[in-house]
Amino acid sequence: MTDTYTVLRQFADSWAMLAIFAFFIASVIWAFRPGSTRIYEDTLQIPFRHEDGPAAEPATERSTPAEEAK
To answer: Left, alpha or beta for 61 (phi > 0: left; psi -120 to 50: alpha)?
Structure first.
């Protein structure tokens, strides 16, 4: 009878490595799938937003924490 360490080691050396590799390949394919460019375009432009100054405050007034406590 083999001990638990040997069984788990053989599993990790074979099937677990194959599963990790398959997950990595699936993640890469998912990130570079056709049509994903349009989805990620907004995220790509985040560092370049509001280059001339900070973003404007929203039109609605914000309440202070003291006002919310009332």
So the answer is: beta
